[in-house]
Write a structure and sequence with these properties.
Layout (H helix, E strand, L loop, with lengths): L1 H33 L5 H9 L5 H22 L4 H36 L6 H35 L4
Helix pairs in contact: 1-3, 1-5, 3-4, 4-5
Protein name: DUF1772 domain-containing protein
Keywords: Membrane, Transmembrane, Transmembrane helix
Organism: Pedobacter yulinensis
Amino acid sequence: MKKVRHILTFAYSYLQVILTGTVVFQTFLMYPNIFRDPPASLQLSMKFFSAVTPADFFPPFGSLVVATAIPAVVLAFRDRPAFHLLLGSVLLLLAGDGILSILYFWPLNEALFTEGLSRYNAETLKEFAVDFQHAHHLRLLTSLVSSVLAMLGLMRCRFK
């Protein structure tokens, strides 16, 4: 059982760091281009993402992270220092990358990238873009802290 706990804790910690890396990538490489000059830059982004979109990657990858996180936390229950760090990491993951994305970003993505000018005027899309970026900074922060907690949890685990 200890080996399974070790593997799951290691897997979750590193998958969480990879997830945070993708959020950092979005923040500094994608979003400056996507939100440079809405709505024109949004329309260009829709053309660019015509084959594969972030929505094709993040929900399945996020599910994989959660699928490793929950059993890692459950198996770390008796290892209190690690358990508290991993639990904090998972709660931030679920709140920042999960609930915030599903309840806020997914509908906003629909408005910005699917419906666009066919439903909203240019001024409204600009406001949506600003709101998106502000909320994204919260997602970035929760993801960064979640990764730090996951790695600290991994380092605190007793695998003997």
